[in-house]
Amino acid sequence: MSWTVASSPSFKGEVGSTMLTLSPRRIPSTSLLASPSRRQKTPSPQKPLLIGVFSPSKVSPLQSKLKAADGAHRGKPSAHVHHVQSGTAENSGPEQACPSLSIFSDAPISLCSVNSVSNHLFQKVDIWPSTVPLPLATSYPRDIELPFSLMDSRHRMRGPNAEEATMIMEIFPTAHTIQVSPPFLTVVCTSIPKIPLPTSIAGIPCVFTDNENVMSDLQGIDCRGPHMLSDREYPLFELPPFADRVEILRELMSAGATEIGWLGTRWVIMVENPDEETQTKLPRTIANLVVSYIPEEKHHKHSLRRKSPEKYLLDNSDYYPYLHGGMMISDGTIFSTSGIPVRHPDDPDASYFTVSKHAFVHSSTVVHPSPAVGHVLGKIANIVVGGTDIALCRVEDDSLRYATESFAGPRGTIKFTGLARSQESYLGQRLYFDSPFTGLAEGYCTGQGCRRIPSDVPGEAWRFVEVIWTDIQRDGIIDPMNGCCGSPIWDAEGKVHAFFHYFNDSSTRSFCPTPDALIDLGYELSAF
User: Fold this and answer.
1) What domains can you pick out in the chain, each with its CATH number?
2) Which of 98, 103, 375, 449 has the greatest number of C-beta atoms within 10 Å?
3) At what angle do helices 61-68 and 162-171 cross, to 10 degrees?
4) Which residues face 376 on adjacent strands?
């Protein structure tokens, strides 16, 4: 079911938004006594990322017109498109409007306005052929910045109008459809260019497909059950309260739901072992926003066994006694990644740093960087962090120093500035993480989830955990990323939004618990 419609004129595009660019590679140390702010070994498998801003070499009349606009909303359509007011997801025939656009004298353009639920934020634009064909590029930059932005200052996405879509078409000659369905802008091509492609266009993440019926791996299967919570309304692109999402998930667990994801304008439900009745059991709308479901796929917790493939170059350097996030740690059998240092105000003499709980099943002793070197840092504390897979290592070595930072990018050491609650994350947010198995990597927040976790508390069947979904595969990192579990994930300001946990084997989605449970327990970011 297509539910994207014409863009709202109240959404203003932002021009020339700044973007933090971090290098995916490390500069190897020239000294054995290197500061821990530089890696002594450059991790691989990594591919060099293309960095830059795309500027078409040929300035078309469209670009001249956009650049000449002074203070006006550059996403304002120049054609009249019929908007359909709708508050239901019931199927009905799409209404179409096929205007003639005077600025295009020889290009057939059609705008399709399709019924939606509660809003008309988005627009699907089919343009064929491109008005200004460009030769196929040999490579594209990682981020394509244009004179307009498809995300506003409140982190709300919108769809491109005809002029903006045409500008995108000029960049990808084989493209014939542009569609925004949060969190992605999807470029549909007759054939996908077999060269490195960008990961964002006009400020939002992008994906490429040659099948316009499959826009992304988060599209899901449309649900057809009764409406749910029709008397509620949640603001678009604002994460609903955690308690409400837990309530919804509890209600849907009888239909096999294991997690409910918020994608800004719609819901996605993860379902365990769906059958032919699942589609009619799950509600078609929740709080008047459409719902789809995705089968719960096999996931893999990416901690690395002691014997690692020879093709991987891992940073197993010994940085003791100066440690921080992104370094190799082990329980003697499984390798994982060190997290962030924290303290509790009620116990200021105790020092902790975060680790991935499932990576310490063979021993509670935490060593760096490996059993062969074996600096014993401490032991896993008996502290329950809400079923999140976040565990705390209580430091027992008085010589250890642990900084609130990760390895350095081209602008210097990356400093962590605090812990972010789930409400501070948003769709399309650019996120970063660093591990000894990948080096520095970039990705995006593609969803915000509430997931059920089996509880080990007597009398309690389930715990419910805040997670974010991230997509970092298209940043040149080769999935699976064994050993990354525990890596902090942070934003451009250095706030930690999550900790890497696992990703689905047949998907690009990584599921990462947020620091909310740590914050609720009273822990604070603190170097020692």
Assistant:
1) 61-209 (no CATH), 221-296 (no CATH), 297-528 (2.40.10.120)
2) 449
3) 130
4) 367
Q: How are beta strands 267-271 and 289-295 bridged, if at all?
A: parallel
CA distance 157 to 425: 14
335-365 b/e (C-beta count within 10 Å ≥ 16 → b): bbbbbbbbbbeeeeeebbbbbbbbbbeeeeb
- Tokens representing residue 9 in the block: 């004129």
Distant-in-sequence, close-in-space partners of 492: CB < 8 Å, separation ≥ 6 = 19, 20, 430, 432
CB burial of residue 30 (10 Å; 0-12, 13-18, 19+): exposed
In eight-state DSSP terms, residue 346 is T
Q: Is 186 helix (H, G, I), strand (E, B) or coil?
A: strand
Provide φ and ψ at 518, rounded to 5°.
Answer: -65, -45
pLDDT tens for 45-82 read 443 333 333 333 333 333 343 344 334 433 333 322 22
- Closest of 414, 114, 454 to residue 272, by C-alpha: 454
Distance CA 365, CA 367 (A): 6
Nearest Cα neighbor of 514 from 481, 488, 475 is: 488
Query: How far from 428 is each of 146, 197, 264, 462, CA to CA, in Å?
Result: 17, 17, 10, 30
171-201 core/surface letters (b: 16 or more CB in 10 A; e: else): bbbbbbbbbbbbbbbbbbbeeebeebbbbbb
Q: What is d(CA 390, CA 385) in angstroms, rounded to the nearest whole number?
A: 6
**What digits encode the pLDDT tens for the residues 247-289?**
999 999 999 999 999 999 999 999 999 999 999 999 999 999 9
Give the tokens for residue 15: 């021009």
In the block, which residue shows the tokens 């030769």? Answer: 135
Between CA 411 and CA 20 the distance in angstroms is: 10
- Tell me the pLDDT band of 88, cut-offs 50, 70 and 90: very low
What the block records as the tokens of 389 is 């897979």
Report pLDDT digits (tens) over 457-481. Answer: 788 889 999 999 988 754 455 454 6
Which phi and psi (to 5°) does residue 506 adopt? -105, 25
Report whether 315 contacts 242 (CB < 8 A): no
Cα–Cα dist 513/416, whole Å: 17
